[in-house]
Every structure is written in structure tokens, then in C-alpha cells.
TrEMBL record:
<dbReference type="InterPro" id="IPR036388">
    <property type="entry name" value="WH-like_DNA-bd_sf"/>
</dbReference>
<keyword id="KW-0804">Transcription</keyword>
<dbReference type="GO" id="GO:0006355">
    <property type="term" value="P:regulation of DNA-templated transcription"/>
</dbReference>
<dbReference type="InterPro" id="IPR041664">
    <property type="entry name" value="AAA_16"/>
</dbReference>
<protein>
    <submittedName>
        <fullName>Regulatory protein, luxR family</fullName>
    </submittedName>
</protein>
<dbReference type="InterPro" id="IPR000792">
    <property type="entry name" value="Tscrpt_reg_LuxR_C"/>
</dbReference>
<dbReference type="InterPro" id="IPR016032">
    <property type="entry name" value="Sig_transdc_resp-reg_C-effctor"/>
</dbReference>
<feature type="region of interest" description="Disordered">
    <location>
        <begin position="898"/>
        <end position="917"/>
    </location>
</feature>
<keyword id="KW-0238">DNA-binding</keyword>
<dbReference type="InterPro" id="IPR011990">
    <property type="entry name" value="TPR-like_helical_dom_sf"/>
</dbReference>
<keyword id="KW-0805">Transcription regulation</keyword>
<dbReference type="GO" id="GO:0003677">
    <property type="term" value="F:DNA binding"/>
</dbReference>
<dbReference type="Pfam" id="PF00196">
    <property type="entry name" value="GerE"/>
</dbReference>
<dbReference type="InterPro" id="IPR027417">
    <property type="entry name" value="P-loop_NTPase"/>
</dbReference>
<dbReference type="Pfam" id="PF13191">
    <property type="entry name" value="AAA_16"/>
</dbReference>
<feature type="domain" description="HTH luxR-type">
    <location>
        <begin position="841"/>
        <end position="906"/>
    </location>
</feature>
């Protein structure tokens, strides 16, 4: 093909058009017309690959091929490129010897750095002339192709040889192809000026287009056309990067806006190392400074001038690595930083922090570099880290605050150490309370000296109570009692509520009460919600709870204050409101990385689900909460999530889950807390469910003893009498059960859920004729309370009571309702359903629990009650009770009917019950 002389062409890097143009020049030179082509392109744009493809074509066509590649390290070596051209061409021996004798004097010439490259050195005019003549003579026999890659690195004598040949090749069958970097300013301006005075062809390789990438991906990546736009955005059309993406894709690595594979990262580094050393330094500076970059800052960090930085940025942008001055893909910047030697990376980070501090950058920006450098000195770095930490806490970014404060603490001045330690402890507590323990010593010393005030003083007591360090808590409270001025009214009110969570420290409430003598509205609200833990529940407690929740921000007040406000809503018939506040506060905790708050709020949500009877959801939430914090991080509060998990697992009849929860080691001091009371009650119910009646009685009695001693005998917290009454019923002691329920119902504090559950147990302890009335009242309370599990139990009991009195139709309807409530509450964990039969007909439905089904299956296989008791680790009495309920639900009169009934109603092959085992 013919090409216009002296024109420039912008050719896509699929190389198709570029290769066609070079092939056309070779065809033209065969007619005796010399041609020159300049191929330029950005970093890794495919220049070398294009030359190699053309060289293969030229060799196949019979042309004599002379090739060379410039290199920065060989630039001082005179005639280096000339030597490559002739000695790699496979010349006849006589010509090769002649060429060697001509190159020797040129190579021995010392380069004059100030010489004009356009003027040939006097000492090798004759050798250069003869070399050109040899080349032109060879072109008479066949076309000669001269290819020089990276000509910008060629030595001066070789450049002069090229110019000399350029002036004499017009009538020869010679094609000269020179490949060079495309830069804003030519690296060899004099050489270019002389070279381009005569007609020439310029090919500028552009980045791959989206279509070019699609063509490259064809047959290697499914849906290449759909993938190409995204890969173009990642690579900027750089062919080397695109091929690296293909390699990563074929190796199974994820490719997207946030991740790339190792091949891509290697390709980024290879691109940078192909250019001059200064480019890598600028790339590192860009990776370090990120959005804070300016040409001046980049220059100072990279040790170069702003002008050189701008040129480097242009090169990196043309290469597809940068977009608007930033790395196109975070993986590219990460690759640059990761490849930087450790000491150099530390130096760059520290220097960046210093430069940004001098420029007045935001404290968090400077602090991030200081932390990344892991080298903090006293003075301004500590001040910056403290300011950044305080700003992070104000923005609820707890993790950032901890990240800034920890490296500052070892180098801080003594007079600042206490302040930074206090902020760090509060921040760490919100992430993991156990992590704050190692930093408490300075606060303890300041506390004993009476130097702490307000929130800092409360922090010492709070942390000691949380981890069960009663001695430290008592000593700190004694200091506060002697120095009432250490607490302001709000701190004292918070302290009182905190202490109410950790009973047994009577002086705590006394100290707080003495200090809280203020008419401040916040203090009044705190005092009102504090009555939740007493029998004198304040009528304003619900409104005060909502005021506190509406006004609080994470970290502004003790977690126990917020938790008390939420539990007031949960236990006073407003679980929906509590749920909404939990959602809002959880979102805030997630944004700020306050894991401790997330965990506690998740337990409250689980508690709300439990009170609604959504037991499967409650169990899942409790497990999630336990997983958020390490075991030690929960401190004494671990009793709360374990209690909810135990109660939910008991309702679901999951014996293994109950056993697993009971095996979790809890600190002895936990039993002296509100969470411990809840745990004792829940563990009692769990023991009762698995047949360990005496262990259950011990738990209920222990719970009751502690609640009475602490004057918090509140059924809303732990209705231990109800559990103890159920245990007495299991042992066949209905009178003791009636007495316990009577005591509970005479207490002033309670709610509909607790009263409904108590009425259900009272009915079970009463005479058959009295049961329907009591159970109807229980159903009424439980419907209003919204607890589906307790409601299902009450409906089932009412159906059985009516059935025993001959009211079969109503009993069947109630059984259907019980099944519906059970379905809703178990959420995927519904027990087996079987037909309710009464004589000849049975259109109702009833439910066999997991425990009843296990007992029934073992009995159907011929096991005795005592054998079943041993297999399931339950008492013989419990086996008998389960079988009694199974007979009634399946409409059976004898044990012999079990295999037939179970196989008929569950779809099981009757032969499954033939073998014992």
C-alpha cells in the first residue's frame, strides 16, 4: 500500500493497520525507494511487539534484517547500536570482518556530551561512510530492513550513523523503522529535527479501544463484548494490562473495581520498570499521597521538580495507569506500594506526613500517614494524632480513633499521657472491652490520687464492674464518696444506673444518690428510668426512656443507660419502639465500628423477638451477638446473650443447643449482676426442658434468693417463681406450684406476658374444672402481649382442658390456632404435625414437640420408659408425661398403637419401628 510522505497516522494498538503500513513501506522499498518510519507510543503500548511482528514478516519475505535495541545502561557505550545491527545480521565472514574493523575506531571514541548530534565526529567520518556503503551495497541484492527499538537510549555515534544513512538511503532498497517513547517533549530534539526534515512516516500507537479489547479477548473470555468496556476502564486500553487481566481471569482470580489478580499487579510494575527511574519514584509518590497530591508535593516527595512530575503524570496517564492523576485501579497503587522496600516505604510515609502537616492538611490525613509509617515522634505528630482521634470519635469512627491513639501513647509527654489514655480506653471499650485492660493502670493511679473528673472517673468504675473486678470498683466508689466534687450531676446519674446492673455494691447507689441533687432535666430522666430496677416504677419512665434514646449518641453516655431505656420499652409493652431505636442505634454503631454497641443492641433485638415468640429468629440473633465480641470482651454481660439463647433454644426444644449454651464458661462474678439473674432463670428453664428437674429447681431458687436480697424481686426481669412452680408440677407437687404462682401474682411489678404465663402454670396446677377459665384469661393476656410461643402453649392447654370436659369441637378449633401460632413462631423450625382424633373422626390438628416425638419413636420400637429415660437423659416421670400427651394427641389408648399411628401420620415405614435401638 502507498502512504503519504511526511504525514502522521494515529493507529489503534491492535497493530493491524500499523503492521499493514510497515509492510507497505517494505514493498515500496523493493522498487528502489528508501523509506523511514518512526513508531511512537506510550508506556507498554505495544511498540516492541509491532516491531517483532514486522521483523518476522521481513525475514519471511527474504529481506536482510538488521535489528538493535537501545538501553539506558549502554548509552555511554559508543557504536553499541551499530554493533548490534551488523553482528546480529548473519553477514558473510568477509563482510563481518570488514564491519568489525570499521566499528572498532568508533567504539574507541570518547563521547563529547556537548557535541551536536547532527554533526558527525571527525574521527569516524570514514568508518561511518564505509558502513553505510556496505549496507547500501547489500541492498542491491535484496531489501535491507533496519529496526531499532527504544532509539531514545541509543548512543550518540549510533544516532549519527542513522542520520548519515538517512541522508543517503533515498535511492536504496532500505527501510529504517525506529521505535521510541512518546513523551510531551522529545528526548532527542536535535536528532528529531534532522531526521524529520525529509519525507518520513510517523505511526503513533494509541491505547486499545473497547472494540480492540473485545477482539483481543475473543475466544479467551466468554461474553468478550460485554466484558470489554469494564476492562477498558480498568486498563485504560494498555495492551500489557489487558493481557494480564486475561491471565488472571483464566487463573480464576476475581476481576472488578476493587480487586485484580497477581498478573495485573506484576504488569503494572513491569510497565514502570521499563521507563526511566524517575517514573517509578513519581508513581510511588502518587500511591502514597493519593488525593492530596499536587505537582509540588509530588516533586518534593519524589525528589524531583514539579515540571518532571507533570511529564511523568502525562506518561502514566497515556499508559492507562492513571486517570485524572490517580491510579485507575486501587490494585495498581497497592502493587506500587507493596513493591517498595520497607525502609523506603516508611521514609515516604513519614515524609508525606511532614509535607502535609506543613501544608495545613486535615489532621486525619496527616495521621493516616503517621500510622502507616509506624514511626511516631514526640511533638507535633502526637498532637496531630490526638486531634485526629478526637475528630474520629466525634464522627463515630471508633476504629480510626484507636488506630491514631495507640502509636501516640508510647511517645507522649507525661503531662499528656493521662488525657490520651482516657480517650483511648473509652474508644477501645467500644471496640472490645477486653482490649482496654492493658491501658487502665494510669487511670487507676489518677483515680486513687483524686485527679479524675466526670466521665473519666465513671470509666474506672464502669470498666471494673464490667470485667468483674469488684475490689477496684469498691475502692473507686470509696474515693468518689470521699470526694463528691469529682462527679457532676450527669456523670453521677449515669454511675447509678451502671451500678444497678452490677448488684451487691450498695455504696454505689448511695454515692450516686448523694451527688444527684440537681434539677437538671437529663438527671431527672435518668432517675426515672433507674426505677425500672425497683418495685416503685416511675410513671414517667417510658417517656424518659424515649427522651434519652432520642438525645443519645454513641459514646456520649454509658451503654447501660441506653440499654435500660431500651429494656423499659421492651418490658412495658412497646417492643416495636425498642426495635426501631435498636435499628437506628445499630446503624450508627456499624458506621462507627462500635462493635460492643452492635453486640449489645443485637441482644436487645433478640430479646424483642423472644418476647414476640419469634424464637428461631431470637436464637439466631443471640448467636450473632455472641460472635461479634470475643468471649473475654463480654465480661460479666455475657449472661444476657446466653440467657436469650437459652430461652429461645428451650422454646425450640433444641436440646443440643441448650447443652452447648450451658457449657460456655461464665465468670462467677456474673451471677451478682442483672444479666446473671436473667441467665439463672433461663438456665433453670433449660434444665427443666431436658429433664434435669432438681438442677432447674436449684437455679430458680438461687435466682429468687439473689433477687430478694438485692430488693429487685421483679417478675418482669426473671419470673423465677413461675419456673419453680413448673418444676414442682413436674415432681407432682401442685400445691407448692399454686402457692408460688400466687406469690408472683401479688407482686406489684409485672406485665401481660408474665401474667399470662403464670396463669397457664396456675391452671396446670388447678382442678380440671377450674382450668378453662384460668387459661382463657391467660390467652387474653398473651394475645395482647404478642408472644406467639406462650400463646400457642396456652391455646394447646386450653384445648386439652376443654377436650377433657367433653367440649371436643372447641378443643379442635383451639388446637388449630395453636398450630398456626407455632408455625409463625418457629419460623422454619416447626415440630411435626399430626391429626387430632376424637373417636371416629378427626378434622383438627395438634402438634408433637421434638421431645414428644423422640420419646414416641423410642417407645414404638419397644423401649421401656426407664430405657428411654437413660437414652435421652431425662427422668422416668418426664417420659411418662410425654407419652401421656402423645396418646392424647394421637387419639390412642395403648402403647401397641404407636408404630401404626406414627407411620400413618408421619409417612414413616412401619418396619422402621420393628427393631429396638
Amino acid at each position: 500500500m502507498a502512504a503519504l510522505e511526511g504525514t502522521e497516522r494515529l493507529v489503534p494498538t491492535d497493530h493491524g493497520d500499523a503492521l499493514s503500513e510497515l509492510v507497505g513501506l517494505l514493498a515500496e522499498c523493493s522498487a528502489g525507494t528508501g523509506r523511514l518510519a518512526l513508531v511512537s507510543g506510550g508506556l507498554a503500548s505495544g511498540k516492541t511487539e509491532l516491531l517483532q511482528r514486522f521483523q518476522r514478516h521481513a525475514a519471511a519475505s527474504g529481506a536482510l534484517l538488521l535489528t538493535a535495541t537501545g538501553a539506558p545502561a549502554e548509552r555511554p557505550l559508543q557504536a553499541g547500536v551499530i554493533d548490534q545491527l551488523f553482528h546480529g545480521a548473519g553477514l558473510p565472514p568477509e563482510i563481518a570482518d570488514r564491519v568489525s574493523h570499521l566499528i572498532t575506531p568508533i567504539a574507541a571514541t570518547v563521547q563529547d556530551s556537548g557535541a551536536d548530534v547532527r554533526r558527525i565526529h571527525h574521527s569516524y567520518v570514514r568508518p561511518v561512510h564505509e558502513l553505510c556503503q556496505i549496507l547500501l551495497e547489500m541492498s542491491r541484492e535484496r531489501p535491507v530492513v533496519v529496526c531499532v527499538d527504544d532509539v531514545q537510549f541509543a548512543d550518540s555515534s549510533s544516532l549519527q550513523f542513522i542520520l548519515y544513512l538517512r541522508r543517503r538511503m533515498r535511492a536504496g532498497r532500505v527501510v529504517v523503522v525506529l521505535a521510541e517513547w512518546q513523551q510531551p517533549q522529545p528526548t532527542l530534539p536535535q536528532f528529531h529535527a534532522e531526521l524529520t526534515r525529509r519525507p518520513h512516516h510517523r505511526i503513533r500507537l494509541a491505547p486499545l479501544s473497547v472494540c480492540g479489547i473485545a477482539e483481543l479477548l475473543r475466544d479467551r473470555v466468554p461474553d468478550a463484548g460485554a466484558v470489554a468496556p469494564a476492562w477498558h476502564a480498568l486498563s485504560g486500553g494498555n495492551p500489557m494490562l489487558v493481557r494480564a487481566l486475561v491471565e488472571d481471569f483464566e487463573a480464576g482470580h476475581e476481576i472488578g473495581p476493587d480487586q485484580v489478580g497477581p498478573a495485573f499487579k506484576r504488569a503494572v510494575l513491569e510497565c514502570l520498570h521499563r521507563w526511566e527511574a524517575g517514573l517509578l519514584e513519581v508513581a510511588r509518590a502518587i500511591a502514597v499521597l493519593g488525593k492530596e497530591r499536587t505537582p509540588v508535593l509530588l516533586g518534593r516527595l519524589a525528589g524531583t521538580t514539579p515540571e518532571a512530575v507533570e511529564q511523568a503524570v502525562d506518561v502514566l496517564t497515556a499508559a492507562g495507569l492513571l486517570l485524572d492523576g490517580c491510579f485507575r485501579h486501587p490494585g495498581a497503587g497497592a502493587a506500587v506500594l507493596d513493591s517498595t522496600p520497607g525502609a523506603e516505604r516508611v521514609r515516604l510515609r513519614a515524609r508525606a506526613a511532614e509535607l502535609l502537616y506543613q501544608r495545613g492538611a486535615a489532621a486525619a490525613v496527616v495521621a493516616d500517614h503517621l500510622v502507616a509509617a509506624d514511626r511516631v515522634a514526640s511533638g507535633w505528630p502526637v498532637a496531630v494524632l490526638r486531634v485526629a482521634a478526637e475528630q474520629a470519635l466525634m464522627g463515630d469512627d471508633v476504629a480510626a480513633a484507636v488506630r491514631y491513639l495507640e502509636p501516640a501513647l508510647p511517645v507522649v509527654e507525661p503531662d499528656e499521657r493521662l488525657g490520651i489514655t482516657s480517650v483511648l480506653v473509652r474508644a477501645l471499650w467500644r471496640v472490645n472491652p477486653a482490649a482496654a485492660v492493658v491501658h487502665m493502670k494510669p487511670l487507676h493511679e489518677a483515680m486513687w490520687a483524686g485527679e479524675l473528673r466526670g466521665r473519666d472517673a465513671v470509666t474506672v468504675v464502669h470498666h471494673a464492674l464490667w470485667i468483674g473486678d469488684e475490689a477496684t470498683a469498691v475502692r473507686a466508689l470509696a474515693v468518689l464518696e470521699r470526694n463528691p466534687g469529682m462527679l457532676d450531676a450527669q456523670s453521677a446519674a449515669e454511675l447509678r444506673i451502671v451500678c444497678q446492673w452490677f448488684h451487691g455494691l450498695d455504696q454505689a447507689t448511695a454515692v450516686a444518690t448523694d451527688v444527684v441533687a440537681d434539677a437538671d432535666p437529663w438527671v431527672a430522666a435518668a432517675q426515672a428510668i433507674g426505677t425500672f430496677w425497683t418495685a416503685e416504677f416511675h410513671p414517667d419512665a417510658i417517656a424518659s426512656a424515649e427522651h434519652i434514646l432520642r438525645s443519645c449518641r454513641l459514646g456520649d453516655m454509658a451503654l447501660e443507660v441506653v440499654l435500660t431505656a431500651l429494656l423499659i420499652l421492651v418490658h412495658t409493652g412497646h417492643p416495636d419502639r425498642a426495635e426501631r431505636w435498636c435499628d437506628r442505634l445499630t446503624a450508627e454503631a456499624v458506621r462507627g465500628g462500635a462493635v460492643t454497641w452492635q453486640a449489645i443492641l443485637e441482644v436487645v433485638r433478640a430479646d424483642v423477638d423472644l418476647r414476640r415468640g419469634e424464637v428461631a429468629v431470637a436464637a439466631a440473633r443471640a448467636e450473632t451477638a455472641l460472635a461479634l465480641l470475643p468471649h473475654q470482651g463480654w465480661g460479666l454481660a455475657i449472661g444476657y446473650p446466653l440467657a436469650v439463647l437459652l430461652e429461645a433454644s428451650t422454646a425450640l426444644d433444641r436440646h443440643r443447643a441448650i447443652a452447648d449454651a450451658m457449657r460456655v464458661r461464665v465468670p462467677d462474678a456474673m451471677f451478682a449482676t442483672a444479666a446473671g439473674l436473667r441467665y439463672l432463670y433461663a438456665r433453670g428453664n433449660g434444665n427443666l426442658a431436658v429433664g434435669r428437674v432438681l438442677a432447674a429447681i436449684s437455679d430458680f431458687q438461687n435466682c429468687g434468693t439473689r433477687m430478694r436480697e438485692w430488693r429487685v424481686d421483679l417478675p418482669v426481669l426473671a419470673p423465677w417463681r413461675c419456673g419453680l412452680a413448673q418444676a414442682n408440677l413436674t415432681l407432682g407437687r401442685p400445691e407448692a406450684a399454686r402457692e408460688l404462682i400466687g406469690e408472683q401474682m401479688r407482686l406489684p411489678a409485672g406485665d401481660r406476658r408474665t401474667r399470662g404465663a403464670a396463669l397457664r402454670v396456675l391452671a396446670a396446677a388447678g382442678e380440671p374444672a377450674e382450668r378453662p377459665a384460668l387459661l382463657r384469661e391467660a390467652v387474653r393476656h398473651l394475645r395482647q402481649a404478642g408472644d406467639r410461643v406462650e400463646l400457642a402453649r396456652a391455646l394447646s392447654d386450653l384445648g386439652e382442658a376443654l377436650d377433657a370436659l367433653g367440649k371436643h369441637a372447641e378443643a379442635r378449633e383451639l388446637s388449630r390456632s395453636a398450630v398456626a401460632e407455632t408455625k409463625a413462631s418457629y419460623s422454619g423450625a416447626v415440630p411435626i404435625q399430626v391429626d387430632w382424633e376424637d373417636g371416629d373422626s378427626g378434622d383438627g390438628r395438634s402438634v408433637l414437640s421434638d421431645s414428644e416425638l423422640r420419646v414416641a419413636e423410642l417407645a414404638a420400637k419397644g423401649h421401656t420408659n426407664r430405657e428411654i429415660s437413660a437414652i435421652l437423659y431425662i427422668t422416668v416421670s418426664t417420659v411418662e408425661q410425654h407419652l401421656t400427651r402423645v396418646y392424647r394427641k394421637l387419639g390412642m389408648r395403648s402403647r401397641a398403637d404407636l408404630p401404626h399411628r406414627l407411620s400413618q401420620r408421619t409417612g414413616t415405614d412401619p418396619r422402621a419401628f420393628e427393631a429396638r435401638g
